[in-house]
UniProtKB/TrEMBL annotation:
InterPro entries: AAA+_ATPase, ABC_SmlMolc_Importer, ABC_transporter-like_ATP-bd, ABC_transporter-like_CS, ABC_transpr_FbpC, Mo/tungstate-bd_C_term_dom, P-loop_NTPase, Transp-assoc_OB_typ2. Keywords: ATP-binding, Cell inner membrane, Cell membrane, Ion transport, Iron, Iron transport, Membrane, Nucleotide-binding, Translocase, Transport. One of its GO terms (biological process) is quaternary ammonium group transport. One of its GO terms (molecular function) is ATP binding. Residues 3-237 form the ABC transporter domain. One of its GO terms (cellular component) is ATP-binding cassette (ABC) transporter complex. The keyword Cell inner membrane applies. This is ABC transporter ATP-binding protein. Coiled coil: none annotated. It comes from Comamonas antarctica. Pfam families: ABC_tran, TOBE_2.
């Protein structure tokens, strides 16, 4: 394992709650891990602890099997061979792009420095820009210079903390894809912090969802979306809606009774005995709910938002529950209308009933 974080706890003096609390994660060489979660959940603190910028209270951090951080060991940041990119580009304004990029490789011979600068500038798509100055570049270009500067010394691990948060939305999405390609081309292993879900999906091989200092799940995007480990993940990734359900055992398997009808013939349904009386809440994504005029169950449209090829309808069932559905945009119903709905759930994700 390339990066191994075990039961990590990081505390700030005078704060009752640990900023990072019992976090364990593994990152393979060449993989990009992304930490995502609401403001204050501990993402930056975790990243800084990996960098050696925050002391570890308990647990440990290993890089290539060497303990670099624990309550008793703290390898200084400069010995961890880590490259860092932060949200403010932090380029030296009085130095040329080339001199900025060469900043961490002064130990190399001049000719090697120049070759490496040219190589990483080409990698980030800025070949031929070595003589320019930061103020002559756009925000996106400056951030690519910062990335080139961090990559130049061939760090063993790259840490990126919200590197696009000062850029406009269109540019961010494009850069997210670009940065993934650049990191992959460089063969880098990286840990990336963001609060933007689309950015996390665009960049990460593996994504960790944090809340209140804890890591709720560390998985690929597909699994996070389809098999969230906790209610928090279900809600944070893709805005889940929960529907009360009762699991009952029938002759041909478990069925989930819900206000939108029965879910039968579903793969991997928990057993009724998993919950008191079989009563639980099941997760419904907007793509699990299908508009069908002939369906028996009707729901009233309370909100709709146009998404181009489809509408996202928010609907209320007669029982008062709210569900969401993606509906092709030629089904243009009005707010207040009652329309038929049915479920198309392939697997049941259930959580304990919340009052
Ligand atoms: N230097 C510090 N001293 C004391 N408390 C701190 C310090 N830095 C962060 N904290 C606290 O630790 C918790 C985690 O903060 P952290 O910056 O790691 O969160 P984050 O998830 O990166 O948030 P954001 O997305 O807003 O940057 C927060 O409650 C924060 O107030």
């Amino acid at each position: 394992m390339f990066l191994k974080v075990s039961q990590l706890e990081v505390r700030y003096a005078g704060r009752p709650q640990a900023a990072v609390n019992g976090v364990s994660l593994n990152l393979n060489a060449g993989d990009i891990g992304v930490l995502i979660g609401p403001s204050g959940c501990g993402k930056t603190t975790l990243l800084r602890a990996v960098a050696g910028l925050e002391p570890v209270s308990s647990g440990e951090i290993r890089l290539q099997n060497q303990v670099v951080g624990s309550a008793s060991v703290s390898l200084p940041p400069e010995q961890r061979r880590i490259g860092m990119v932060f949200q403010d580009y932090a380029l030296f304004p009085h130095l040329s792009v080339g001199a900025n990029v060469a900043f961490g490789i002064h130990a190399l011979r001049k000719s090697e420095q120049a070759a490496r600068v040219a190589e990483v500038l080409a990698l980030v798509g800025l070949e031929g820009s070595a003589a320019r100055f930061p103020h002559e570049l756009s925000g996106g270009q400056q951030q690519r210079v910062a990335l080139a500067r961090a990559l130049a010394p061939r760090p063993q691990l790259m840490l990126l903390d919200e590197p696009f948060s000062n850029l406009d939305v269109d540019l961010r999405e494009r850069l997210a894809h670009e940065v993934r390609s650049i990191l992959k081309a460089a063969g880098a292993t990286a840990l990336f912090v963001t609060h933007d879900q689309l950015e996390a999906f665009a960049i990460g091989d593996v994504i960790g969802v944090m809340n209140h200092g804890e890591l709720h799940q560390w998985d690929n995007a597909y699994t996070l979306y389809h098999r969230p480990a906790t209610r928090f993940v279900a809600d944070f990734i893709g805005h889940g809606v929960f529907l009360p359900a009762r699991l009952v055992m029938r002759e041909d398997g478990v069925v989930a009774e819900t206000p939108l009808g029965e879910l039968s013939d579903v793969a991997e349904c928990p057993l009724p005995s998993s919950y008191p009386n079989g009563e639980c809440d099941v997760l419904l994504r907007a793509d699990d709910v299908i508009h069908d005029d002939s369906a028996e169950v009707k729901a009233q449209i309370v909100r709709k938002s146009f998404r181009g090829s489809e509408f996202l309808y928010t609907m209320r069932l007669a029982s008062g529950q709210t569900v969401m559905a993606h509906v092709p945009s030629h089904h243009n119903h009005e707010v207040g209308e009652w329309v038929g709905m049915k479920l198309a759930v392939e697997h049941v994700v259930a959580f304990p009933r919340e009052k």
